[in-house]
Amino acid sequence: MLLDEKAGEVMEAFRKPVGKLAGRRMALCLTGSVAAIEAPKLARELRRHGADVTCYMTEAAVDYGVSPHVMEWATGKPVVLKLTGKAEHLEDYDLVLVYPATLNTISKLARGLADNAVTALCASTDPSRLLVAPAMNLKLYRNAFFVKNMEALRKVGVTFLEPRFEEGVAKVASVEAAVDHAVRCLSTSKLKGRGVLILTGPTRYDLDPVRYISNKSTGKLGYWLSKEAFQRGCAVKVIYGPGSVVFPAYIPVVNVYTVEDMLKEALNELEKGIYETAIFSAAILDFKPARCWERKIRSEEAIHVKFEPTVKVIDEVSRRHPSLTIVGFKLEYRVSREELVGKAYEELMRVNASLVVANDLSEVKGESHRACLVGKGGVVKDFEGSKAELAKEIFDILEEKL
Question: Does residue 400 or residue 17 have the better pLDDT?
Fold first, then answer.
């Protein structure tokens, strides 16, 4: 009985139109590649984000071992294998995702051919609603005729998912990448097209060739901020100190080490004039050692380290770019809520920020996050949840301010 109840809860979760793809109709098209084995997982992930998914398959996709029964289970709908009198190729979808797409199928799309259920659906769909994920041997991917076909499709508005180049193969993009791009393609966010610069991760200074000082930071919040910005259609770039997270390949990242490195790269980016918003989630050291020993300090040595203040990155950016929308962060330790909010408000007014996220380090544990979001009118929201949820909350507030 308990198992039945749990299964019912899972199915109910799929039925509810919640998530970033809620209410969106999507076609997931499979072609003849072994990479099609990832499609069931992708279908489930799209549904978890709220999408209504229908699967279209070529005969070659079936030949490569993906059962239509599996895809029917994954999507919750019958699979379209052949066109019938229902004219399935004329269905109107918000997005058609070809995953994986072979050289043969992509070449057919470029030539306007419609000889199976997948190519016929793509031919009847506006190119701006096509998201194509190539998968093939690297020699095929570099074929001159194939490259021209992709260029021709891009020119008319087709979006391509960059493959993963590994072991001499252009492997199909990850399920995570496919979902992120689907969300981005269908975004109706008011932030779409706006430039967002995110500073995240720790900063470091070397004491000697093997030791350094740093702040406690992984860069995980910056990771979720960058994903949220990407999914909303922002032109996002990350300036990243030496943290422990790996950003998706489709999010551009500049790696830095010291506070001076971070400031230099931030100013270089902002001079391009393409950013409306900067988010300062980096753990920037307030002090640095006055010197770095050129040799390893021996364990029996007694040393005295003199520290000197570092440059205030957010202050310098605010001074040089007064029209920039700034999101700052204020970190304290074991202080009252009133004191935390007060310090956040001081920071907000000092750098003319639109929002300051105030954290007490004693209340940040793993993925759990508690924070006060402070605007010029006072506390906007008391937040408690995951880092991913905090990132979403920050961008929701930025949207409300537009």
Answer: 400
